[in-house]
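FORM 7B: Structural annotation worksheet

SECTION A. Query
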Amino acid sequence: MKGLYCRAAGSDAEPKFVIQETSLPEVLGSHQVRVQVKACGLSPLDLKLLSDVGIQRDLIPVGREVAGVVQQVGPKVSFFHPEDEVVGILPLDSPCSGLCDVIDIDEHYLVQKPEKLSSVCVAAALRDGLCAYTALHTHARMAAGQTVLVLDGASCFGLMCIQLASYHGVKVLTTSHSPQKHTFLEQLRPSVGVQDPLVARVIQVYNGSSDLLPLVLEETGGLGVDIVIDSGVRLQEDKEPEETKLLPHKHDIISVLGVGGHWVTSQQELQLDPPDCRLLHLKSASVSFLNPEVWTASSAQQGRYLHILKDIVEKMSAGVLRPQPEEAVPLYEATVAMETVQRHQKKKAVVQL
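SECTION B. Predicted structure
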């Protein structure tokens, strides 16, 4: 049996992804489930995070968002039976690669997959759905009637945030990072015959314009938004890398927040200067860091995590969450696909087994 693994290189070298032979133990653990994998999502590997939590291996398993069919269950498994269709995210310390034909996983990391939901769709979108749910429900505690600004709304994560917020009666503003993304997002705005549009306003940021603050204030009557969900920020005005030029500056984000607002950031190394903190204090606003790995890195809220996963797949099955379709690649292209994802040339890939 073959799986995809990462051979971590030095600090300056790019990690190498290799196909390796692997095997499973003959006897299942008490609460383990043996799953035949049908599809596996590929997301960028955060080697620094793995190092920070003490996971250091020569070969790191790759591919953690899996969908498949239960083949065998351990003696104390109570949630699943053979032939059940399941979906889940492998924990950070899992010894299995999600691209193996068959994997062993603890039952407490899995939920039932609705029959009409395709394995490829759920494997490609489960992580983004979890991130959106964590940002809006867990951190921002969104409520009907609020206003949210979702930055880069055409991304996989941004689209999930837009759909989830709109479903709960939240007014959505978003930004577009290219003409193609702007066209896509404009299709979600109000139109004749559409009673519940997903997006109230799309703001261009790809044309060198810095109109984010005045346009948000115009849309909110000068009050600002209740929630901001970013996908990264610029920390300095000058000497920024090319790939960050479309990201908002941290001061712009704080400025568009209303009183009591909440900023959920994906920026791991956010630096707030005293003037930034002073402005947050004046608005009684707060900042939360979005780390979706926290659910599988700690078992403190395992029941809540399973509830979230179940709700996400049910919303996907019902059409509330409609991720952008992701074309599946075969296993023999997994190495190239993962290299592309790791270089952030593509944010997501899915492998069909």
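SECTION C. Observations
The chain has ten helices and 15 strands. The chain has a mean pLDDT of 87.

SECTION D. Sign-off
Analyst initials: ____
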